[in-house]
């Protein structure tokens, strides 16, 4: 099997690139024709029912007005009932034939079920669901007084959208309706001081990309990634604290109009204003340049001297001028950047870190990738702190690690989803060893099921609690010690965090949140702490055995050995790599998603339901 991966790493990239070059022109023509068709046959929402969360202010409020102008019936949900009533009154004046207000907290699963039921009982149907509710928090990761308090961002921004979507799906299937998910450019352009906000928005984007592949044509999904927009979230000291004084804020009304137009056209994605997509291009082509810019901008200035008032004319000019200017600058900077990157790669291979005698803490070390990572570090003479829930399995791993050359191994039984356990295992490791050099955040659990088949939606919280918060808590308590040793964090994400992998929407979202959070932390830490983000494909472990592979419809994808994957991870960490995709051919799928997202979505939907079990087809 490992020979197959070696062959695919060599053969698949050139074959795929050749196919893309042959296929891309006809695909772009098809996409252009489809775009024209969507403009001509844009959906009329007069008389249709639209439910909007977070409708008491900001984008949600103006979305209500925009739908009202088009004659839609509205169900407005938010916590502030007085504000909602004022929005509802104005919506009626603008032309909405019927408006109801529902006071609710979307972070509570029972509230989400209640307001969906109330809306459907009142109107008898549901056509558009707009998941807009969200909150923001601006602070350096290390400055959070109580790390567990940051969970409110994920509960509101991510779980709020998940809960509402889960209860709305049956009604949207009946009407062949549409979901509009309001994410943010912060979901792809990680920003310092906003690590949890960025992570929650990355999770939303990943979640809806996977659902789009699951639903196919039954329910349309439009994923919106706005830039800085005038709202309560971006007023006060937000802009200066986030060091975005130089970024022109778009008017809420203009943004809302663009969103409703996009939803009615049936677009898959909307970036508003369109010039902000240049940041994504820069991140894909020159991620280090963006990191350096954001890090030094964050450290060296409290406010930018280039202040701009919110002007739609400015936005229009930037939409026209910025793309060609950015492309020219990229063409100029790309050659020297690639040379520097190549030299850095050679340097990493030559001056690879010697971890003999250094202290490595590994979570999820009782089996799978974590176990094999422990053995790889042991062979190199590192001292190990192994963390997992299964103490009996840990003892076996510790014994084997000592035989392989580790001079000192300690075991700590802990549950990474509990903040007090994470503090305890970091403290115990420090008391025993007196230092910490590498932190490997590996603990995780799989989740393969269609969202609408989950018997109890709140049971899925454990996936994010372990896969995301388990890494966050351990990192939070380890950072002061890693700063002292100029250590490294190795975070094990997944290829599912980079592209949709139905039916694993929650798992993919948890891994996308990990990637985004650690990209933000890399900017905050600068050169003080190195971060290697690992996105493995299918690796042989307890997580990929049994019926999981058949449920995920990936039986035909070759599985890499855990030992080879672990060796690649430790090699990459010692070189100081920013990213590792293992096996490397998996990166081709990400390229495919960037260039032809619709094709990937169609393929995944067809794969999921072509030979699906009966219960999956029934759900479809």
From TrEMBL:
InterPro entries: Sc_DH/Rdtase_CS (IPR020904), SDR_fam (IPR002347). Its main location: membrane. It is found in: Membrane. Keywords: Membrane, NADP, Oxidoreductase, Signal-anchor, Transmembrane, Transmembrane helix. The keyword Nucleotide-binding does not apply. It comes from the Eukaryota. Pfam families: adh_short. The chain crosses the membrane at residues 12-34, 320-340. It is a single-pass type II membrane protein. GO terms for cellular component: cytosol; membrane. GO terms for molecular function: oxidoreductase activity. PANTHER family: 11-BETA-HYDROXYSTEROID DEHYDROGENASE-LIKE 4A-RELATED (PTHR43391:SF90), RETINOL DEHYDROGENASE-RELATED (PTHR43391). NCBIfam families: PRK06181.1. Belongs to the short-chain dehydrogenases/reductases (SDR) family. This is Uncharacterized protein. It comes from Populus tomentosa.
């Amino acid at each position: 099997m490992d020979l197959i991966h070696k062959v695919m790493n060599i053969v698949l990239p050139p074959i795929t690139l050749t196919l893309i070059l042959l296929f891309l022109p006809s695909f772009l023509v098809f996409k252009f024709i489809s775009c024209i068709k969507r403009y001509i046959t844009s959906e009329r929402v007069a008389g249709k029912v639209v439910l909007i969360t977070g409708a008491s202010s900001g984008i949600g409020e103006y979305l209500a007005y925009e739908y009202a102008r088009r004659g839609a019936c509205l169900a407005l949900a938010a916590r502030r009932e007085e504000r909602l009533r004022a929005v509802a009154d104005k919506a009626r004046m603008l032309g909405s034939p019927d408006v109801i207000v529902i006071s609710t907290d979307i972070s509570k699963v029972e509230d989400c079920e209640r307001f969906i039921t109330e809306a459907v009982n009142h109107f008898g149907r549901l056509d558009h669901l707009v998941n807009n509710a969200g909150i923001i928090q601006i602070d350096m990761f290390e400055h959070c007084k109580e790390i567990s308090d940051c969970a409110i961002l994920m509960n509101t921004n991510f779980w709020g959208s998940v809960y509402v979507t889960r209860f709305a799906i049956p009604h949207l299937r009946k009407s062949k309706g549409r979901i509009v998910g309001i994410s943010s450019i912060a979901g792809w352009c990680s920003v310092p001081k906003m690590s949890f906000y960025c992570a929650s928005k990355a999770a939303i984007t990943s979640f809806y990309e996977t659902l789009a592949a699951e639903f196919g044509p039954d329910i349309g999904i439009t994923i919106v990634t706005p830039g800085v927009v005038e709202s309560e979230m971006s007023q006060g000291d937000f802009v200066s604290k986030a060091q975005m004084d130089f970024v022109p804020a778009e008017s809420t009304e203009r943004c809302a109009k663009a969103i409703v137009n996009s939803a009615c056209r049936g677009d898959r994605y909307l970036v508003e204003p369109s010039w902000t997509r240049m940041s994504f291009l820069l991140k894909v082509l020159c991620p280090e340049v963006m990191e350096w810019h954001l890090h030094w901008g964050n450290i060296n200035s409290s406010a930018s001297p280039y202040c701009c008032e919110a002007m739609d004319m400015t936005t229009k000019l930037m939409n026209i001028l910025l793309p060609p200017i950015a492309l020219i600058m990229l063409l100029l900077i790309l050659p020297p950047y690639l040379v520097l990157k190549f030299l850095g790669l050679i340097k990493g291979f030559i001056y690879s870190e010697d971890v003999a005698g250094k202290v490595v803490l590994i979570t999820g070390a009782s089996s799978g990738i974590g176990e094999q990572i422990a053995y790889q570090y042991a062979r190199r003479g590192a001292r190990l702190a192994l963390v997992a829930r299964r103490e009996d399995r840990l003892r076996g791993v510790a014994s084997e690690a000592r035989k392989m050359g580790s001079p000192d191994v300690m075991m700590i039984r802990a549950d990474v989803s509990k903040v007090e356990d994470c503090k305890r295992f970091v403290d115990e490791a420090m008391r025993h060893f007196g230092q910490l050099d590498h932190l490997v955040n590996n603990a995780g659990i799989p989740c393969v099921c269609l969202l609408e088949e989950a018997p109890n939606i709140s049971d899925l919280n454990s996936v994010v609690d372990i896969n995301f918060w388990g890494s966050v808590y351990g990192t939070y308590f380890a950072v002061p010690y890693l700063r002292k040793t100029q250590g490294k964090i190795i975070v094990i994400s997944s290829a599912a965090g980079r592209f949709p992998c139905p039916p694993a929407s929650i798992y993919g979202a948890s891994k996308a949140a990990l990637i985004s959070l650690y990209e933000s932390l890399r900017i905050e830490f600068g050169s003080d702490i190195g971060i290697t983000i690992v996105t493995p494909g299918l690796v042989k472990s307890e997580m990929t055995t049994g019926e999981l592979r058949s449920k995920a419809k990936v039986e035909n994808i070759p599985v890499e050995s855990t030992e080879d994957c672990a060796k690649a991870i430790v090699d990459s960490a010692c070189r100081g790599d920013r990213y590792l995709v293992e096996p490397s051919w998996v990166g081709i799928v990400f390229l495919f998603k960037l260039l032809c997202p619709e094709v990937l979505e169609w393929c995944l939907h067809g794969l999921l339901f072509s030979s699906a079990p009966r219960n999956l087809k029934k759900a479809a």
